[in-house]
Amino acid sequence: MKVLSNVEACVLVGGCVLAVDLLTVVHEASERTAIPLQPNLIAATAFMEPLEEWMYIDKDGSKVGPLEKNAIRRFWSKKAIDWATRC
């Protein structure tokens, strides 16, 4: 994205949030093992516990986690973490 107006348009329509969601889904999918029976996979994922594999460094420099993805989303929406937070 070399054209600034394209970057601005992408940010305004929520492109950054979509990109972060896409990256987290790809990360989670890459960690799962392949199961040959698709119907069993669908049934099994309905009862899976959320993966707690996300960590970040807080403002005091201490490691927080492991946390599930929804916890990270809550911290983001409450402005407890931002773009400067180290993960």
Automatic annotation (TrEMBL):
Gene Ontology BP terms: endosome organization; receptor-mediated endocytosis; regulation of early endosome to late endosome transport
Keywords: Signal
Name listed for the protein in its UniProt record: DnaJ-like subfamily C GRV2
GO cellular component terms given for this protein: endosome membrane
InterPro entries documented for this protein: GRV2/DNAJC13
Domain of life: Eukaryota
Signal peptide: 1-19
Organism phylogeny: Eukaryota, Viridiplantae, Streptophyta, Embryophyta, Tracheophyta
